[in-house]
């Protein structure tokens, strides 16, 4: 009876229960946003442990973010108590694969304490490899090659299995050789990049059946969230692991597939039933997250995509507030407006924790950070220029890395002369040669070269001192608690003193961050587990627990939910991104639309979309037109408002799907031709005096032609700048623009000049 039912089952609907109770055999849960997929998956995990079908250590559970893993772990603790601590294989693909690889590192020539390189390290290494091959790094940029390697690894290709034609993708046919050199160098450094974590495991599984069988036997149950975004190597890895027990449950939503640019393949969903014959497919249709208007808006938008499986969603919730679409003058006003909206929500008693701002690209974040700091709105940045990516944090972590792993040359290089130790380029070059000749890591060679007269005395003393420091810290690794050791290193390295002596404005913040770093370390049981975390974490653990507004990218928001969501920068070229427009294909545009769908469906109670008429991008002011996604939202689910008279019509036109710029919107692709560039960019636009005081007005559809305009008059147009009226026809004007040439525009887009 329901009364004796375990707590994790109560409240689930019939298909959710089905997904929980069908523990044996392959299960695919395919359903739209907010239908309780993750909740059902979590309950399934609880059920398996609660009914003792497996020990926690026999379950592999893959989540998309560290945050999701943490939440799932917490929920498990609530349901099954301390037993949940045994969930050693619950985490992201990266975290779980790293743990696995540490156990078998020697099978691919690594030691179990290998370092995981971040993108910066990876690029530095690739630069060295490209230059060593006598290639011009300007012509063959390391960054481009890094992208290529990432793609190959996501497809499961090693240097040995790389298809022949791929080798022409870079450096005139030398790509394969470079790839092999890079992999060899990583092994020498006792390091991996992100892609290696799974790729090495695939190699090990292929060559050592016993290792594979060990895991196939161990993992009695496998659970995977956000399955639509798995790439080929993740898919191959899962498929191998599931072969024995075949108790694999994957959940996903094809409409939320947003990582194809990183090698994710929606096709993995479709392949599931083929790979696991007899798989049970469960569909969920009731949305528990959002109001009717939010769902209606999101549903109408995603319906514009041709390439989708299609599904029904309904909700019992009220229709709620309509999705608001706000047109503002420019980027700074957007940030100001969002700040005001948040303050007004806070006055209504809404906690900042329940508010999120979702951006399309990282660079959009800064405006909000800056604004919120100024007005005192607490916020956290997730997936952005995050704590662990800051210069001072990365420097300090390099010290920790060399301490825990002497062979970590990249880390050593980073700090060998930071703070300045009077080591010249020549001395460092000699050190490199010395290390290469003796085959020793740099941190060891440093001590050796200090005993020779290869380099000047001052440099010898500096290196001897640094080596001695590392030797001592390494010893203390065994005797001191690691947060304490961290503080010792901070002081004795002279690194902290360097910033304390710095008079620049950001130095104080850096010092605070360094202390924060030693504080955070205390949350980990060892220096190594901390370093692992740093390599793997993709969100930012914050210090104080006051409620904070979350600022994050749309990509990072997948799977999450907030009461109030602000979707900013909905303009052509920002969202959909310029890149997706340049590529021009339907595919990339559809992926952008899925991203918009993900964005709107994060909202539980209110979604607010903003677009600005002017935006500064890479230092240049550019006028912009509302995103096509704005016009694709079903009108009955939205409410438009704008602080611009011109904006009102722009928007209205967009709504009516009679975009007056339809003919030029293709040309708005920034960077397309110098002529267009000239027409697009100008000094920061100033508003006409009448607009400065303009209060937000609701859109009135079907405005009459204006009577204040006549032929010969000077006007200012939001998009095209200044010009002279040549002719008037109803509400349409013929204008000779100073820079953009002759155009027909709607009268409501122009302001009288002077
Ligand atoms: P997404 O596709 O965005 O990842 P999802 O399908 O994983 O969404 P969940 O995050 O699991 O959806 O659930 C969405 C919201 O609905 C959560 O707040 C969850 O607690 C709630 N929910 C899920 N199932 C039920 C249910 N049966 N009864 C009440 N609320 C539910
Ligand atoms: Mg989910």
Automatic annotation (TrEMBL):
The residue ranges of the UvrD-like helicase ATP-binding domain are 10-291
Q: Which residues bind ATP?
A: 31-38
| Entry EC number(s) | 5.6.2.4
Please report the stretch or stretches of sequence annotated as the UvrD-like helicase C-terminal domain. Answer: 292-559
Source taxon at top rank: Bacteria
Pfam short name (any one)? UvrD_C
Q: Which InterPro entries match?
A: DExx_box_DNA_helicase_dom_sf (IPR013986), DNA_helicase_UvrD-like_C (IPR014017), DNA_helicase_UvrD/REP (IPR000212), P-loop_NTPase (IPR027417), UvrD-like_ATP-bd (IPR014016)
Give the reactions, separated by semicolons, that this protein catalyses.
Answer: Couples ATP hydrolysis with the unwinding of duplex DNA by translocating in the 3'-5' direction; ATP + H2O = ADP + phosphate + H(+)
> A cellular component term (GO) from this record?
cytosol
Q: Tell me yes or no: is Ligase among this UniProt entry's keywords.
A: no
Q: Which Gene3D superfamilies match?
A: 1.10.10.160, P-loop containing nucleotide triphosphate hydrolases, PCRA, domain 4
Instruction: Using the UniProt annotation, give all residue ranges assigned to the region (Disordered).
Output: 1-13
Q: List the keywords (alphabetical).
A: ATP-binding, DNA-binding, Helicase, Hydrolase, Isomerase, Nucleotide-binding
Q: What class does this enzyme belong to in the EC scheme?
A: isomerase
PANTHER family in the record, alphabetically?
ATP-DEPENDENT DNA HELICASE SRS2, UVRD / RECB / PCRA DNA HELICASE FAMILY MEMBER
Q: Which family does it belong to?
A: Belongs to the helicase family. UvrD subfamily.
**Function field:** Has both ATPase and helicase activities. Unwinds DNA duplexes with 3' to 5' polarity with respect to the bound strand and initiates unwinding most effectively when a single-stranded region is present. Involved in the post-incision events of nucleotide excision repair and methyl-directed mismatch repair.
- What protein am I looking at? DNA 3'-5' helicase
Q: Which organism is it from?
A: Sphingosinicella microcystinivorans
């Amino acid at each position: 009876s329901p009364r004796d039912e375990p707590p994790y089952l109560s409240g689930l609907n019939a298909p959710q229960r089905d997904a929980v109770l069908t523990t044996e055999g392959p299960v695919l849960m395919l359903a739209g946003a907010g239908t309780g997929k993750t909740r059902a998956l979590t309950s399934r995990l609880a059920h398996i442990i609660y009914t003792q079908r497996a020990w926690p250590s026999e379950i592999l559970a893959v989540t998309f973010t560290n945050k999701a893993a943490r939440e799932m772990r917490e929920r498990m603790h609530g349901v099954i108590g301390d037993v949940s601590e045994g969930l050693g294989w619950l985490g992201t693909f990266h975290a779980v694969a790293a743990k696995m690889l540490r156990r078998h590192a020697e099978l691919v020539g690594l030691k179990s304490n290998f370092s995981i390189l971040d993108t910066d390290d990876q690029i530095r290494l690739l630069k060295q490899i490209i230059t060593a091959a006598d290639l011009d790094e300007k012509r063959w940029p390391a960054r481009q090659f890094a992208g290529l390697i990432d793609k190959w690894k996501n497809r499961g290709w090693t240097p040995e299995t790389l298809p022949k034609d791929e080798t022409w993708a870079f450096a005139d046919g030398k790509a394969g050789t470079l790839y092999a050199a890079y992999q060899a160098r990583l092994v020498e450094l006792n390091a991996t990049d992100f892609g290696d974590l799974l790729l090495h495991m695939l190699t090990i599984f292929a060559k050592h059946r016993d290792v594979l069988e060990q895991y196939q036997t161990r993992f009695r149950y496998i659970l995977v969230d956000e399955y639509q975004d798995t790439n080929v190597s993740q898919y191959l890895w899962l498929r191998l692991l599931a072969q024995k027990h075949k108790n694999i449950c994957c959940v996903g939503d094809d409409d939320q597939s947003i990582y194809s640019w990183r090698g994710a393949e929606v096709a993995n969903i479709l392949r599931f039933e083929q790979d696991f014959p007899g798989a049970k497919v469960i569909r969920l249709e009731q949305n528990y997250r959002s109001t009717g208007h939010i769902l209606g808006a999101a549903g109408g938008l995603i319906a514009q995509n041709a390439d989708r499986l299609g599904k029904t969603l309904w909700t019992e919730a009220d229709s709620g507030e309509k999705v608001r679409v706000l047109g503002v003058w420019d980027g700074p006003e957007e940030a100001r407006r969002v700040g005001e909206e948040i303050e007004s929500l806070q006055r209504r008693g809404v906690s900042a924790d329940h508010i999120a701002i979702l951006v399309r690209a990282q660079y959009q974040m800064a405006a909000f950070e800056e604004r919120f700091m100024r007005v005192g709105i607490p916020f956290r940045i997730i997936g952005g220029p995050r704590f662990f990516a800051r210069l001072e944090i990365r420097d300090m972590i390099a010290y920790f890395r060399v301490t825990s792993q002497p062979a970590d040359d990249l880390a050593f290089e980073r700090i060998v002369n930071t703070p300045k130790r009077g080591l010249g380029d020549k001395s460092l070059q000699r050190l490199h040669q010395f290390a290469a000749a003796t085959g020793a890591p740099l941190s060891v060679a440093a001590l050796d070269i200090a005993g020779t007269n290869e380099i000047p005395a001052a440099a010898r003393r500096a290196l001897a001192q640094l080596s001695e420091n590392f030797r001592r810290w390494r010893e203390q690794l065994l005797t001191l608690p690691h947060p304490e050791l961290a503080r010792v290193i901070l002081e004795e390295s002279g690194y902290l003193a360097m910033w304390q002596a710095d008079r620049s404005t950001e130095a104080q913040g850096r010092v605070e961050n360094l202390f924060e770093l030693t504080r955070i370390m205390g949350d980990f049981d060892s220096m190594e587990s901390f370093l692992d975390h740093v390599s793997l974490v993709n969100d930012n653990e914050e210090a104080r627990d006051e409620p904070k507004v979350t600022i994050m990218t749309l990509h990072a928001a997948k799977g999450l939910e907030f009461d109030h969501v602000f979707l900013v920068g909905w303009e052509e070229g920002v969202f959909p991104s310029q890149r997706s427009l340049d590529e021009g294909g339907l595919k990339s545009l559809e992926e952008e639309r899925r991203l918009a769908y993900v964005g709107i469906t994060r909202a539980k109670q209110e979604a607010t979309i903003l677009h600005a008429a002017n935006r500064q991008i890479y230092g240049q002011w550019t006028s912009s037109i509302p995103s096509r996604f704005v016009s694709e939202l079903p009108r009955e689910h939205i409410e438009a408002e704008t602080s611009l008279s011109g904006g009102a019509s722009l928007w209205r036109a967009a709504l009516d799907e009679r975009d007056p710029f339809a003919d030029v919107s293709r040309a708005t692709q920034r960077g397309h031709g110098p002529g267009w560039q000239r027409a697009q960019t100008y000094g920061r636009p100033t508003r006409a005096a009448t607009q400065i005081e303009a209060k937000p007005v609701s859109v009135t559809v079907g405005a009459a032609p204006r009577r204040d305009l006549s032929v010969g008059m000077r006007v200012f147009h939001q998009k095209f700048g200044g010009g002279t009226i040549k002719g008037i026809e109803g509400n349409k004007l013929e204008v000779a623009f100073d820079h953009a040439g002759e155009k027909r525009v709607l009268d409501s887009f122009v302001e009288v000049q002077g």
